[in-house]
Specification:
single chain, rod-shaped
């Protein structure tokens, strides 16, 4: 088998190797976190933070209500104990007690409102966690498929690379170097096949005499248009 025939086989292997490498890059990209998963996780985190803030507000309110109740009780005891006889002082204490009681009622109303908000947030959070679990399950299943495909493509790449190295070792060093140099400058296609007297690399019709010389296969013949090695 001539070096040109061997180089054409090497090129076919190189194209397959490049395709497998691109496939591995695409798999690596697909194995990254999806936008859907990122969004679902962000929603859960947002609701968790909101719930934490609401629960903190409720604890603060409960403490404030407890403190107001304690102080109102003290005011009531002083008001009705008979220890204070000054009418002006009694009136001032009565107004202060009413203000505390009104403040407590407002805080208790806010407590009820906040408890309803917490209940709503907890329901949203359960739904968001369920959605996150669903998305995570879908992503995990997809990743298992991708990793299986990744292993298969990696094995194919190793087999192709081994065969490529074996073939390359049987080709004259100068011819192989010329092929490699052309491959770098011709976008991975150093050898162009002739079909119907046309160079498949640049789609230019070739003179019949040139085609006959290529078919003779004695020397490397280059396309006068694109400069690739011609193969028939």
């Amino acid at each position: 088998m001539s070096d040109l025939q061997l180089l054409y086989q090497v090129q076919e292997l190189d194209l397959q190797i490049e395709a497998r490498r691109r496939a591995l890059q695409e798999i690596e990209a697909a194995l990254g976190e999806s936008g859907e998963l990122t969004g679902a996780r962000a929603q859960v985190n947002r609701l968790q933070e909101l719930l934490h803030d609401q629960q903190r507000q409720l604890r603060d309110l409960e403490w404030d209500v407890e403190e107001l109740s304690r102080r109102a009780k003290e005011d009531e005891q002083r008001l009705y104990s008979g220890a204070i006889r000054n009418p002006k002082e009694l009136e001032g204490l009565r107004r202060e007690l009413e203000q505390r009681q009104e403040r407590r009622r407002l805080l208790e109303d806010r407590e009820l409102q906040l408890m309803a908000e917490i209940e709503g947030t907890q329901a949203e959070l359960r739904q968001a966690e369920s959605e996150l679990a669903r998305v995570q399950s879908t992503v995990d299943a997809k990743h298992r498929e991708l990793r299986a495909h990744q292993a298969e493509v990696t094995e194919q790449l190793a087999t192709l690379s081994t065969e490529r190295a074996r073939l390359a070792s049987t080709i004259a060093a100068a011819n192989l170097a010329q092929y490699e140099q052309l491959r770098r400058t011709k976008r991975g296609l150093a050898i162009s096949k002739i079909e119907r007297s046309t160079c498949q690399g640049c789609r230019i019709a070739l003179p019949m005499g040139l085609v006959q010389r290529v078919r003779a296969g004695r020397d490397f013949i280059f396309c006068p248009s694109c400069g690739r090695i011609l193969y028939a």
